[in-house]
Amino acid sequence: MEMKDYELDHVNSSEIHISGRIDNFLFGKIKKSYFDELEKSGEVFKDNKKDNQLFLEKFFLLFLENDPFSDKTNLQLFEELIDNKKFLQHCPNFYKIYLTVLPEAHENKEIVSKNKELYLKSEEIRSVEYDHYSFLEEVIDSPSHLSQNIYPEVDNQFRVFSNELLLEIFSDDKKIEESTLGEFLNLKEAELDDNFNFKYSDKQKKAFDNLIKNKLSYWDVDPTATTKYNSIRYDGFWPKDFFRFVLGNSSDLYDKSKNFFTVANDNFQYDRSSEVRIIFSNVSKCVFKIKEKIDFEKLSFLRCGLDELCRSSVINYDDKTNLFNFLAYNGEIIKPNETIHTDKGILIDLMKNNETRQPSFYELFIS
To answer: Which pLDDT score, from 0 to 100, does residue 223 have?
Structure first.
């Protein structure tokens, strides 16, 4: 987009645009009424597969694009596997949603405007009531602190921002930066003083103090790298609402005199058997808005987890790929407006293949 066609929403404001393939994760748990049915869903297959994960995957496909290399729709493939009488008997709530799915595909093509951009919306309407977002909102609970307004229960969007993404920065009606994200950050290891403490500038320290004051992270964050414009990348960010979703809000959890892991073990809000993870791979643009002329020393790049093993073993991105997950300015999280241009695939998994009851979501932030 040429600069002459672009205007900021406000005078003395800035925007950070990040675009490309931005993978993101939705963590949560299946709501009890649906989980009880999901536990029985293995009984509804015609050939007695007894596979709850397969049922969830095939049912979710009813709200996604059909396979272009198949001559059958997702609905036809689902109905080939499922015994309708057993389906109604064991999964009445899922069955009600199933009845909203149209037996024939209907194309809907229209020009859509979002975040000052036009794109073609072209999809086959599968349900008279649900798309894949509203279906997820119906059947799962998840953290909502970092959510958008459209589907507040499902769009917490733990995003992975990587080197090759395109970055544009606008300030005072001028584009002041355009490069890949990796080139813009040009991360270098944080410098420490003789006492092994990070050497903050006054602006950096104020932004850091605001981050701590706002209590956005359960654990302290650690400065691990700086950018060429003196922004800071922090590790160990644990969004507090994500934490509360897994472990509740008992005062014992915040008592530093008590052993955290002992207290946490007594406060799990759900068992791992009900946990679900959805992975979205979208070509999209995220727009982060700042209500002043940007000052890069106030900008913070927050990465979840405490070491590479923690991150790579759970979300399968090493530190060179996963640069950061959330963006903050002067100590406040900026929620991006995201325009999805192309859906590159969605996967849904039950996270119960483990001997412990500890949710795997919780493990993501433990090193």
So the answer is: 94
Model pTM score: 0.84
pLDDT recorded at residue 180 = 97
Q: What is the 3-state secondary structure (H, E, C) of 92-146?
A: HHHHHHHCCEEEEEEEEEEEEEECCEEEEEEEEEEECCCCHHHHHHHHEECCCCC
Tell me which residue of 331, 303, 128 sits closest to 212, measured CA to CA.
331
Q: Computed over its alpha carbons, how large is the radius of gyration of the chain? A: 22
Question: Quick count: other Cβ atoms within 10 Å of Cβ 258?
Answer: 11
Alpha carbon separation from 101 to 26, 61, 228, 345 (Å, rounded)? 24, 11, 52, 20
Give the distance from CA 285 to its chain's centroid.
14
**pLDDT of 148 over the 50 cut:** no
Structural domain count, the chain = 1
> Which tokens hold the place of 284?
């999209």
| Structural domain boundaries enclosing 11 | 3-363
Going by pLDDT thresholds of 50, 70 and 90, the confidence category of residue 166 is: very high
Q: Residue 265, SS3?
A: helix
